[in-house]
Structure formats: C-alpha cells, structure tokens
Design brief:
Oligomer: heterodimer
Strand content of chain A: 35-45%
Number of domains of chain B: 2
Number of strands of chain B: 22
Helix content of chain B: 25-40%
Largest interface: A-B, 20 and 17 residues
CATH class of the largest domain in chain B: Alpha Beta
Largest sheet of chain A: 6 strands, antiparallel
Radius of gyration of chain A: 16 Å
Number of domains of chain A: 2
CATH architecture of the largest domain in chain B: 3-Layer(aba) Sandwich
Structural class of chain B: alpha/beta
CATH superfamily of the largest domain in chain A: VC0802-like
Shape of chain A: globular
Helix content of chain A: 25-40%
Number of helices of chain A: 4
Largest sheet of chain B: 12 strands, mixed
Order of helices and strands of chain A: EHEEHEHEEH
CATH topology of the largest domain in chain A: VC0802-like
CATH class of the largest domain in chain A: Alpha Beta
Shape of chain B: globular
Strand content of chain B: 25-35%
Strand order of the largest sheet of chain A: 2-3-1-4-6-5
CATH architecture of the largest domain in chain A: 2-Layer Sandwich
CATH topology of the largest domain in chain B: Rossmann fold
Radius of gyration of chain B: 23 Å
Chain lengths: 144, 433
C-alpha cells in the first residue's frame, strides 16, 4: 500500500545537494521522485528510489543522516481536475496532507503520479482505493 | 585643568593610600570573620585568623573566593550584615543558570555612587551637565550605578535605560545631553542609527561617553569618538564588588584608575595563585575593604590584565589597570552578558541534542552575535520540516531563558564541526577586540 521515502538532512550551502547526488550516481541509484524543503540554513531532500536498501546503506556509509517514511504514491489521471479529485477524497476522509510532490517522468500511460505524505496512511489509502484511485505499490517503482 | 570628584582621595599620596588600605583591611577581615561563617571556614582551613592580618602585605595569607564560591553560598552565604540592614540587591547571570546576587546597605550604595561619580567627573562631568544613562536599569548594575554617580555629581540625569534607539537620540538632541553612559556596542549602534537618520555629530551636544560592561578595542573607541563626536572613556566593574566604577579612565585614556580606597587589587598567576610583581600580566584579584553587606576578600575576577603605579598625567595616584586582555576561564562576555559554554551545553543536553556543538561569537555592526551550531543526529532527524524547526525554536527559547540573550541556532551536518586532535573546538570568537 505505502512506499518508502528516504529523507536526507542537508546543509543549505553550495554543493551540498551535489555531494549527495554524487554518492547516488556513483552507486548507480535511480531516483524516481525528489523534493527539497529548505530553511535558510538546512534542508531536507526527500526521495523515492529504485533500491531503498542499497540507498540507505550507501548514504549511511557516506555519513548522511536520513530517515525512512512510509508515503503514498497516487496515480492521478493526467487531465484537468485530476489532482482536485484526489484531494476531494482526502478532504472528505478528513486526512491532512503534510506535503506532496510529483513523480519524475517514465512510462506514465496518461497518468501523473504524486507522492503524498499524510497524517494517516491507512485511512487515506482506504479512502482512495474505495473511490477507485490506484496507489503505487513498492514493486511498481522499478516499472514507472 | 583636571577636575576630581574627591581630590583629597583621588590624588592622595601612595603612603596615605597604603595607610587607608592597611587599616580598612584589618577591620574588614575581622568583620568577615565575625559574620560570614562560609569565609571563616575557608580561613580556618588555611590556618589563618584575623590576628594574622596586620597590613596589605599579609593579603596572600587569605584564601581566594571564586565564582564557584558565590554559587555555593547562594543566596545568603556571603552576606555579612543582617538582612534588615540591606536596602538593595543587584544581580548577574552566573554559571549553570545560578545567579550572583549581591547585597547593599545604604552605606554601600553611597560608596558605589561615589565611585561612579569619580568616573563621571574624570570624563569632564559637572553639575551643569546632562547625563543620559542608557545602560539597562534593573538587576543589571550598569543603570543604577551610573544613575547614582550622576546624581552625586549633580548632573541632570536622563534615565532612558537601554533600547528604543530613536527615542535615545531624541532625548540627546532635545534635552541637550552632554554625557552618554552605556555599553560600547550600544554607543556604536546609537551612532549608526544617527547616521541613518541623516544626523551629524555637530547636531548633538554630546561631549563625552562612559562605556563599559564589555570588552572593546582602541579601534572601536576611535570609531565611536568619530561617529558621536565625543571623547569615549572606559569604565570597569563587577556586580560581585558593587558594579561599574571599580575602576575608570581619566583624560589620559591609558588605563583605568582603580578606586584603591575601596578595593585592593592584586595580580596573580591564574595557575598557581601566586602574587605577581607590578607590571606582570595575570589574573586580577580584588579585596573589597569598605563594603558592609557583601564584602568579598580576594575575589578572583578571571580577568587578565596588568597593573601600573607609574605617575599619571591626570594627577590621580591610584593604581591603573589595562583593559582586560582575556579571561583565565572560558567565560565569554556577549552584549555585556556573561556566558559560559557549559551553560549552552546544559541547554543542548536538556533538549535532547548531543554535546556536539560550536559557539561562534562575532561582532556585526558593533553588536555581538551568538550563533550556536549543533550537529544533526539520526534521533533528532525527521522528514517533517515543521517538527525540526519547532525543536530549533524550543532550543532558542531554552538558551534565552538560560543566558538572557537571543542566540541563533544553526543545525549542521554530522561531523561538520571541526575537531582538532579528536577534540572539537567549542568556541570561535571572531570579534576583534
């Protein structure tokens, strides 16, 4: 139902993100989604990758502080009002969205994919599936 | 023509000063022995009784007092008179959050005011002057001390206290203030603000400033003198001894005359405690010989400086001390507030942060800044930005209540704090003082 997001602590200074993507590149890790949140002195890189275990291992070895968070990947029809419909479901279920960001390209077949970090994954997943909205499963990540 | 507030004292012969010190020291040691069990015990441990103290030459026989003693004895342990004889307390922030509370009888306050009055007259003050006291009023000694001195001199006193800079400038201009008393960084800030308001030094009547409670450089003096169009005088003191006015600068501006009729100064080797000869650099130790309520004997200030008794062109005969050149402990003075790294460490640990931190002190536009860098840990980290910033704010609040000043907290990557020989460098002081 949920997929694993890796969040990484980064200082907000030139080269900090580059250094991290360098570690991922060296280890041939494919990033499928990425978002950055920042304050004036630090930031959090949140990402969905093809190989969670390998990524956390190489990040730890490189000295990065990171955490794993279950998030929802939602397939949204790539038409006007698509996101609005998903949010309508979450609103009706009274589930708060803490943050969300878009999935990177790939074979999307007329669908846009978004990552949702919500207060209650179970409640959100049930509500979405009940309304026929498809969720991304961990094994789908490779394919997307 | 040099003017003095108490010429017969300030220009007394060295023999006379020595005679006063001998007589008052003997009396004071007896007073402390009789009334302060805490110090009496220290004397007994050293095998000294009041009979052993006959003159200032016997001072080295007496035990030292340190800030740790003040903490141990908090609040009444060093009080030497009944509480009903006290009329005031003043206070400073101390180590690990414990404050130093100093007590005063009316007599103590009169003598303290005299000391501050000497500083104001040395800066050219008379009863025709208008003296604006922009030091904080309250528990901090700066405001009350200079306020009392200004009254003694007979100046018209404007007790603005600190803050509200535009109002400060308005009073200086509208009420023709001629003397300004505040911290040097605040004086510089007032100067900057005046400039921003499009005012020139010629438009204000100020002629002198008495600035203390924090370290400042000769360059900063020049800067303040130019932006405010005044002569800037240094003043030194500690709450433990009374407050500002323990020593003050004269027209020569080459060191501060210690009020030796009230305080005996010694310079010691901070490691061995041995008294050093005149002219040597070491830790300044004071014995308060006229205070009734809170008479500290051989109090270690932790300030490093040099004493000189060479004749001063101003005619004052009291010994001069250089500006403090550093500390023999790790205390920092930030915006006039005493800060120990251990206090910051305590707050970090209380808030669940690791003790991997670095304190960066700088001076931006003549104002001290305090930045605490803390290394992020896996335990503290979450994907939730709001949670991290909330904790960061809690830490800022915790530091403010411990230190009494606002610090910036910066979260940094693990292992990014420089370690030399495995040991982190805790304090980086970038101020050029």
């Amino acid at each position: 139902m949920s997929i694993k997001q890796i969040s990484v602590f980064l200082e907000n200074k030139p080269g900090a993100l580059y250094a991290m993507t360098g570690v991922l590149a060296q280890n041939k890790i494919d990033m499928r989604a990425l978002s950055l949140a920042e304050t004036s002195d630090f930031g959090i890189a949140r990402m969905i990758v093809d190989d969670v275990y390998k990524t956390t291992t190489v990040l730890r070895d490189a000295g990065y502080i990171h955490s794993l968070t279950p998030v929802l990947g939602v397939a949204i029809p790539d038409v006007p009002g698509g996101l609005n419909k998903v949010l309508q479901v979450l609103t009706d279920a009274k589930v708060n969205v803490e943050y969300m960001y878009a999935f990177l390209g790939g074979e999307t077949g007329g669908k846009a994919y978004m990552i949702f970090r919500v207060a209650d994954n179970n409640k959100a997943a049930n509500a979405l599936e009940y309304r026929g909205i498809k969720l991304v499963e961990p094994e789908d990540i490779q394919r997307l | 023509m040099e003017r003095y507030y108490q010429p017969e004292i300030e220009t007394a012969s060295r023999e006379q000063i020595k005679a006063w010190q001998d007589e008052r020291l003997v009396k004071q040691v007896r007073h402390v022995w009789d009334n302060v069990p805490y110090y009496r015990k220290k004397m007994e441990e050293k095998g000294v009784t009041p009979d052993d103290i006959k003159s200032t030459e016997d001072l080295p026989k007496l035990p030292f007092l340190s800030k740790a003693d003040l903490r141990d004895a908090y609040p009444y342990g060093l009080l030497a008179v009944p509480l009903k004889d006290c009329v005031r307390i003043q206070s400073t922030s101390g180590t690990t959050g414990k404050r130093v509370v100093a007590f005063y009888t009316q007599h103590d306050i009169d003598l303290w005011d005299d000391c501050c009055a000497r500083a104001i007259v040395a800066a050219g003050g008379t009863n025709e002057d208008v003296c604006q006291v922009s030091y904080g009023y309250g528990l901090f000694t700066g405001g009350p001390g200079l306020n009392g001195g200004s009254h003694k001199v007979g100046c018209l006193t404007i007790p603005t206290s600190s803050g509200n800079t535009e109002r400060q400038i308005m009073f200086i201009k509208d009420l023709s203030a001629t003397i300004l008393c505040c911290t040097p960084s605040y004086a510089a800030y007032i100067g900057e603000t005046m400039k921003e308001m499009g005012m020139t030094p010629e438009q204000i009547p100020l002629k002198a400033g008495i600035f203390g409670a924090e370290a400042w450089s000769e360059e900063m003096r020049q800067d303040i003198q130019n932006t405010l169009g005044i002569k800037a005088y240094d003043i030194y003191g500690l709450t433990e001894l009374s407050g500002p006015g323990v020593s003050f600068e004269c027209s020569a501006q080459t060191g501060m005359h210690i009020n030796e009729d009230h305080f005996i100064a010694e310079i010691i080797d901070p490691d061995t405690g041995e008294v050093l000869p005149e002219g040597c650099q070491g830790e300044l130790v004071f014995t308060s010989i006229t205070k009734q309520a809170f008479p500290l004997l051989r109090y270690r200030t932790r300030d490093i400086c040099v004493l000189t008794r060479e004749p001063c062109p101003c005619g004052r005969t009291h010994v001069k001390m250089t500006k403090p050149r550093g500390r023999s402990d790790d205390m920092l003075i930030i915006r006039g507030v005493n800060v120990f790294p251990s206090q910051i460490e305590t707050v970090l640990l209380n808030h669940g942060y690791p003790a991997n931190y670095q304190i960066i002190v700088d001076r931006v536009n003549h104002t001290d800044t305090l930045d605490v860098h803390v290394e992020m840990t896996p335990e503290m980290f979450t994907d939730n930005m709001g949670e991290i910033t909330r904790r960061q704010k809690e830490l800022v609040d915790g530091l403010r209540s411990m230190l009494g000043l606002t610090a910036k907290v910066t979260l940094v990557a693990p292992k990014s704090i420089v370690r030399s020989e495995g040991k982190a460098v805790r304090v980086i002081d970038k101020r050029k003082i």
